[in-house]
Amino acid sequence: MQHTKFTGKRANQALFFTLFRLMSYLVVGILFCIIGFIVIRGIGVINWEFLTTAPKDGMTKGGIFPAIVGTFYLVIGSMIVAFPIGVMSGIYMNEYATNKYIVRVIRVMTNNLGGIPSIVFGLFGMSLFVNKLHFGDSLLAGSFTLGLLALPLIIRVTEEALKAIPDTYRHGSLALGATKLTTIRKVILPAAFPNVMTGLILSVGRVSGETAPILFTAAAYFLPHLPTSVFDQVMALPYHLYVIATSGTDLEATRPMAYGTAIVLIAIVLIMNLLANVVRRKFSK
Amino acid sequence: MFKSSTVEKGYVLCVNRSNKIQNLTPKQVKEIFDGNITSWKQVGGDDIPIEPLRMDDIASQYTEEEIGANFEHLPQKLSEAVASKPGALAFFPEQFININFQGRVLPAETITLKEYFGGKEWFPTATPAAQFGVLPLILGTLWVSIAAILIALPFGMAVAIYLAEIANSRIRKILKPLIELLAGIPSVVYGFFGLIVIVPLIRSIFHLPVGETALAGALVLAIMALPTIITVAEDAMRTTPLAMKESSLALGATHWQTIYRVVIPYASSGILAAIVLGIGRAIGETMAVLMVTGNAAVMPHSLTEPVRTIPATIAAELGESAMGSVQYQALFMLGAILFVLTLGISIWAEIIRKEPKVQ
């Protein structure tokens, strides 16, 4: 009796563990099939011409150069907006703020800000930057909207990077007679640098793939030339993929272009993640 | 928004002066012009048939000469037409109403809160009266999101348990960053994959005329929600104190019994938070859903029919709506609903996470 129960228990465990293992492999397998499928179908499209020329013949030929440049500008713009504010907020919250209650409120707010759907950022950006501030559909409006989206991530990463620095660093610097500002500038920030950079790189990856916030604030369906001022509309990779995947005169003919664009988007995310890992490893000796 | 009329700007609705009707709701106007309401009795008036009159009807009744080359006689004819038919309900531009008009202009009706939140029809550009009922959109959003979580949950839990308890640290070190990496893939890429693989697959499996269905949306969202669910649930399970697990094992329980009797109950609040966060992410997801659900603004009945979610509606319609129009305002209101919904969900998840653990 005792013996059969024992084996039953074991058999049960073996059954469930095998099931979980198989399901895990299945999930990881599915996720990789998605990427693999797109890469295999589209890798043939990727060549120098695809990356360096503008779309031609109703998006069926040519490349995605304006979209790459547009996304690059949008990423730079949004980081100019979000990075200083985000890092300063993080410093304030971890180093200066003494009122625990306020810090908690700010933290809850930034966390919730991070959970807000990107389309809501798009609506907000459209009504504030495009219409109220008269930026129009532009690189500028898009950068501000994407910057807001990246802000919670940067604040949180900065705060965590600062929190990870032992208090002995601060005490040592202060004991040597350095002011608080000097301590932050010369001791805390250099020590936190790798982790903050990691956060920056990850938010670049996030921002470059966002479509909904730029739908109504910056993205153009097709522009043969590159933007010349911050008030110009831009093409962007994720929006370009959306457009050529769903609308167009000849969907079959634009498919290869869509695969190619999807690969470039996936590649950006992969590269950013790798880069973040490299930075993290290199600096944290 | 609730102060503006749903009747197209510059247009008015007129009735015969003998008609007792004081006003019509946007819903009634639509039903009348669609031919679903045919008698004034149905909207609280006398028992006479309704004769809808559009500009086209009037123009076809008279010759070009009678109307005049520049429509100079049109106001006169309109007036006659409305006056001669006791059951008339005319819809035409305001500019054609002159002082001698023998009909009665109905006051412009505004959208009521009840119609907005309880209305089952979303036809923002319909004439003569646009319909702004958000019920199908809200239900469509919940329908797709909850279906997605139900699909993702068993898999997410299995992977979380595997990573937290079963896998050795080498496998875990490889799998965990990979899964987190997949959370970073842009939603438009998942949408594209759904469009070229899942949509045709669903169409051929269920023999449907179109594959863009709620099910396609739910599948794509399930894939996208997996990394969130796995990460949060696994983190929760790993917080189980070693002492608790060891006591369970010491009492003769197998590893599996320990997992489902000790680890899962201990991590239950974190697991629940993972589910809620997953739903929150799914509700707000825009591009992938927009690309695969077919976007028909109807009340959802089954998973194999097209549906439309709130974010997809905003993304699809905002570009076409005139700034400041009723539709524009209605879409911003949708944005506000979405905002409140997701904010509520993330606060809820936060509260669940902090709840005292099961002993």
Which properties best describe this structure?
heterodimer, A: 285 residues, mainly alpha, MetI-like fold, two-stranded antiparallel sheet, 11 helices, 77% helix, 1% strand, B: 359 residues, alpha+beta, four-stranded mixed β-sheet, 15 helices, 58% helix, elongated
Question: Could you give a short description of this structure?
Answer:
Chain A is mostly helical and 285 residues long. Chain A is built from eleven helices and two strands. In chain B, helix 7 packs across helix 9 (214-238) and helix 9 runs antiparallel to helix 12.
Rg result of chain B:
29 Å
CATH architecture of chain A: Orthogonal Bundle
Radius of gyration of chain A: 24 Å
Strand order of the largest sheet of chain B: 2-3-1-4
Strand content of chain A: under 5%
Unreliable stretches covering 5 or more consecutive residues of chain A: none
Mass-distribution shape of chain A: globular
- Count of runs of 4 or more consecutive helical residues of chain A: 11
| Count of DSSP-assigned helices of chain B | 15
The overall strand count of chain A is 2
Assembly level: heterodimer
Portion in beta strands of chain B: 5-15%
Task: List unreliable stretches of 5+ residues of chain B.
Answer: none
User: Mind describing the biggest β-sheet of chain B?
Assistant: 4 strands, mixed
